[in-house]
Design a protein that fits this description.
about 110 residues; about 30% helix; two-stranded antiparallel ribbon; 2 helices; alpha+beta
Length: about 110
């Protein structure tokens, strides 16, 4: 059966937020997932952020290019083991820009 149970049309769910089913093909999705898994591995991988008040953020994060910590950015994991942050890959920026162009019809700065 080829028909979908629910329609998967392009939909603007809120101003500036567009759902674009099938925009990223299965092969490209797999490549992105593999890259995310690589970024999540140590050193400078997936981490739980501690807030200045002593709490922890509920979502874990991976930093690329610059390490975010409360009130600052660094090229190393200053609030962890001091490892260099993994570089931000150009292809990821290009993928994001392509998504913005497709969704909103504008070229990001």
């Amino acid at each position: 059966m080829e028909a979908e149970l629910f329609p998967r049309d392009r939909t603007e769910v809120a101003p500036g937020a567009v759902h674009m089913p099938d925009w990223l093909g299965a092969g490209r999705q797999r490549e992105l997932l593999e890259a995310c898994r690589d970024w999540a591995r140590p050193p400078a991988g997936l981490r739980t952020v501690r807030t200045p008040g002593g709490g922890t953020m509920t979502a874990r994060q991976v930093c690329l290019g610059r390490h975010w910590y409360p009130y600052g950015y660094a090229r190393t994991v200053v609030d962890g083991d001091g490892s260099p942050v993994k570089p931000f890959p150009a292809w990821l920026g290009e993928l994001g820009a392509s998504a913005v162009r497709e969704a909103l019809g504008v070229t990001p700065p």
